[in-house]
Structure formats: C-alpha cells, structure tokens
Amino acid sequence: MIIRDGEYTKTIYTMIKEERFQDAINTLNTIPESSTTRAGLSLLGHCYYQMQDFIEAANCYEHLINLVPDVQEYRLYYSQSLFQAGLFDEAQKIIATGLDSPELKEKVLQLQSAVAYGNEDYTAAQSMLLQRQDGNGQEASTKNDEGCLLYQASMYEDALQRYVSALQAGGFNPHVAYNAALCHYRRKENSQALNYIAEIVERGIRNHPELGVGAQAETEGGARSVGNPPALAASGLAQAFNLKAAIEYQEGNIDGAREALTDLPPRSEPELDPVTLHNMALTDPVGGGAGLRRLAFLLELGPPTCPPETFANLLLLCCKHEMYDTAADILAEHTHLTYKYLSPYLYDLLDALITAQSTPEEAEQKLGTLASSIGGRLRALAAKVQECRSATDQNALRMALREYEGALESYLPVAMARAWIPWRMDDFQGAEREFRASAEFCSETPSWRLHAAHVLFMRGDRYKEAAAFYEPIVRQNYDDILSIPASVLANLCVAYIMTSQNEEAEELMRKVERAEERKGNATGQCLHLCIVNLVIGTLYCAKNNYEFGLSRIAHALDGGSGARLCADTWIHVKRCVLGLLTGMAKQTIVLPSIALQETLNFLRACEAYGITIPSVLTGPLEDSGEQPPTIGLEARKLRALLLRLMEYK
C-alpha cells in the first residue's frame, strides 16, 4: 500500500476506525520509528490487543512503561494484556508495582478480581469485588462478576439472578446473556438456555453480517475464513453456538451438535478457539483419531487455555475406543490434573475400567462398591421424591426429581460397566445377572433396555424375551425406522426367525427397504438393510445352511460389486466363507455345484471391486505405516482355496 508523505496519521487512524487492525499493524511495521516512539508503540499495542494477539500487545506496552514510566494507563494496559494471555501471576506483579492512580482504582480492582478468578483464588476475587463501587455505570459489571463467583460455587440459581439483574441494569450484553444461558444449561433448563442463545445469534447476525454465520453450511465447508476480528469476540456468537452444540450433544443429537458448530463464522483450524476445537473433537464425524489428537493437543497447552473438561473427555474417549493402556498412561503423566479436573466418582469409574484389563475381579469389586454407594443414595432420593409428592410442594418436588435424575445418570454407567466385564469374556449369563441387579433403578431407561436386549439375544435361548425388549424401541421410531440402530433391526429379525415369526421379520425388512428407497440410497451409505441381511445370512451359515446364508450375504452386498463393500461388512463375509471352507475340508458340508459357482462369482466380484479397499478395521490412532491388506487380495485367496477344495476328490 502506497501512502504519500503527510498522510500516514490519517491513513492509520482511518484503518483503526474501520477496524482494519491487521492493515494498520502492517503499515505501522513499515515505519522504523513505530517500535521506538510512544505514539507508534501505543497504536501497535492497541491494534495487537484488538486482534487478540495479547503477547505482542504486552510486548508493546512493556516497552511503553519503560519509555514513559509515569503514565499509569500503559501499566494497566500491560497487565490487561498479560491477563488475556493467561499469564495471571505476571499480570498480578505489574498491578502490585505502581498502579495506584485514584482515577484507575475501579479498573484496577476489576482487573485484580479477574486475575484472582483466573488463578482460582475465589476468596481474593470476592474480596476485590466487595471493594468496588456500583456507581459510574459499573452496576451491570459488578452484578455479572458476582454471578461468576456464584456460578463457580455451583450456586446456579443465585448466579442466574445476578445475570438477569446485570441485563436489566446495563441492557443486553451477549456475554452476560451467555452466562445466563449457561446457568439454565447447568440447571438442565435447556429450553430457556436456547432462548438466550437464539437472541444472541439473532443480534449477532443482524449487527455483524460480515461474520458469515451459516456460510460453512451453505458452501459445504468452502467458505472463506473471517479470522478472529473484534466483532466476533464482541458478538458472543462463538460461545452461543458452542453452548447450543453442548445442549444437542447432551441430548444425544450428535448431528445437531455438528450443525451448530458448522453455523459458526468460518475460520481455519489454527484460528479456532479452544472450546470450539474441544467440541469439534467430541463430534468429529470421521472417527476417533482426529478427536483424540485435538484433545491431546489441548491438554498439552494446559490451563487456562485448555477447557477444564478436556482431561476427563480425553480419558473417556480413550475408554470408548478401548484404548485403556493409553488412558492409563495419560492418567500417570497428568497426576496433577486428576484431583483438579476429575470428580471422585469419575476417577473411580475410570480406574475400574482400566483395572478390568488386567484384574477383572478387582474391577468388579471397585464397581460393586461404587454401585452400592450410588444405589443407597438413589433409594434415599426416591423416598424424598415420595415425601415431596405427598406434601404437594412443587418446587421441592422439582428439586428432588432433579437430584434423583442426576444420581441415576451416575449410576447407569456403573451398572453398564459391571455387565460389560462378563460380556467381554462371553459370559452372557453373568452379564444378565448384572442387569437384573440394576433393574431396580434402570429398568425404564432406554439405554439399559437396549443393552439388556443385546444380552438376552446373545444368550442364544432367550430370543422371545430379547424381542420383547427390541419391539418397543422399533415401535417408538417406526415412522423413522432408519433412525433405529441397524443392530437392533437385525437382531429383532433374527429373534423373529428363531421364534418362527418369519412373516414379522419379512415385514420389518420390507419396511427398511422402502425407507432406504425413499431416502435415495444410491451411494450405499445407508447400511441398515445390508446389515440385516448380513446378520440373517450369518445366522443361517451358523446353522450350516450355507446355500441360503451365503446367498443372503451376497444379496446384502449387491453381489460384491456395490458401495456397501467395506471392512465393516467384509469381516462377516470372510467368516462365513471360512466356515464353509472348514466344513468342506472336513467333508461335513456338501453344497450343490450351482451354489458353489455362485459363491465363486461373488468372491470374484469382491476381488475386482475391493482391490483398493482395506480389509481390516484400524483403531483411531493406529498408523503402522505398512500397507494394510485389501478385500481384493483376501477374496482372491478365499476363491483359490474354494477352487482347490472343489477339485479335491
């Protein structure tokens, strides 16, 4: 940019007025005197601060307090920059050395309370807050800070009252409105939280159209990044959309959570704030690998940059992907975070899950102790709920129900973990015993009923009881049958077949087929009917009816030439084909020649279409560097073995 002599001041101030701070920084950096004069350093510090480059801003103000030590405003700006950069102790040192101007007293007290809050010294923050005056338009700020301290003490109702008072005293402020929404979220009042979020988003779109809210969704991720301008920080949009994503995630709507994050103003990954990066890790559609790497990256940054939930969620994600050794290593490497960010309940649960890998008996004992403790609390809370109902005290009843639901949420993972230990050792009778033990509290919980159905199904002789658990799940979502997990539909069909209810199984399969046709399943991404056919085919193969079983499997995969051929589906194919080969080698199975020829044709198609498709499932962090085997290669080997057995006399 060419600027004529005599117009530098006008040009730079125009850029700042138009919030073109990066252009102003670039222009100032072309002037040698900018880094040595009061005017240049002051402008650079202001622009860096507005661009949220707080380290560079702090460097500018550090030079300024050395250049003009008598100007206390620069000392205040220096400490503010250090605070925003997360350097709380350094900020406190600057405040304590020379910031004694009466004109700055209120701002200094406000900054001191913020620094103490950031250092988790809530007593000192409260002390600073009490010294502040409510005059000069500071009432809204004081009320908001009081709300923050109450929120930190888990006094969400009192905090909410302070935030509402702050909004009434100072008018609408997106950050205060977000704080109020957060209190509603903690109180599980999601509809009220979403009302605040909707207002923040509506005002943000209206006042800052340049931020491109929703552009990511409209352009399918191809929107140009808007960076992190001051308008984004002032609008509260990032906080609002992240809270909306958290609500959707908590309600089990992962697609809704991803949609909320997609609606954020477009930014490249290095420009994302830590909370957005954290939530993207939890909702990553590709798989666990990217999510685990993002959470591990945030954990390495450490507090205060790292969101407090990162440590627990990283451990839970490792356990979800059965990476228990990794979880144990993370716990060992970050023992200083264990007591700070893990509740005793969560630590005991994670400890039991990790222990189960080496000593299942010890894990069962730990989980039993935890279940007994929460079970006793549940019984006490159930009695309290009954008392409140008898007294017709609606407020007390709501509080008691909320406590009971919270305790039940804690009990359910423990009950599932207790059943999981025998399940993983194929002790389905033991798993059923654990489910019966937890039925007192969990029998009406959908997830408990679903897993109980799986256990009964795997018993092999309880298909009728398993169907009784599966049927309500299917009936509840019959109009949107593709929203039901494919495993539920497949297991229910098998249960019908095993209890001689073939017509019901056929009707259910027709329903799934029609739903897939309506959805337009040309890409093969919807695998519900495919999985149903695979499971039924596997069932018949297990009963030594390979002719019909393999025909169902071939039908499920479009003869081996469709998009449904992948590592997930191929594993069922090769198990059944290997079962056939074993039976033929032992001469216990004889198939008609036409059935053998159809199997050869099916394997030939799998060989052609699966030549580049990996045949094995890999873990989220597995990267051996070696080329994985492909479906095409394995299909060729199976076909060669089948031809050799067919030629054997």
TrEMBL record:
The subcellular location is: Cell projection, Cilium
Which BP terms from GO are recorded?
intraciliary transport
- Gene3D superfamilies listed in its UniProt record: Tetratricopeptide repeat domain
Matches recorded under Pfam families: TPR_16
Looking up InterPro entries in the UniProt record yields: TPR-like_helical_dom_sf (IPR011990), TPR_rpt (IPR019734), TT30 (IPR039941)
The TPR repeats are at: 38-71
Q: Does the keyword Coiled coil apply?
A: yes
Q: GO CC annotation: what is one? A: axonemal microtubule
Residue spans making up a coiled coil are: 498-525
Grouped into one coarse class, the protein's main location is other
Q: Which molecular function terms from Gene Ontology are attached?
A: intraciliary transport particle B binding
Q: Which PROSITE patterns match?
A: TPR
Q: Which UniProt keywords apply?
A: Cell projection, Cilium, Cilium biogenesis/degradation, Coiled coil, Repeat, TPR repeat
Function according to Swiss-Prot or TrEMBL? Required for polyglutamylation of axonemal tubulin. Plays a role in anterograde intraflagellar transport (IFT), the process by which cilia precursors are transported from the base of the cilium to the site of their incorporation at the tip.
Family, similarity comment: Belongs to the TTC30/dfy-1/fleer family.
This protein is called: Tetratricopeptide repeat protein 30
What lineage, starting at the top, does this entry show?
A: Eukaryota, Metazoa, Ecdysozoa, Arthropoda, Hexapoda
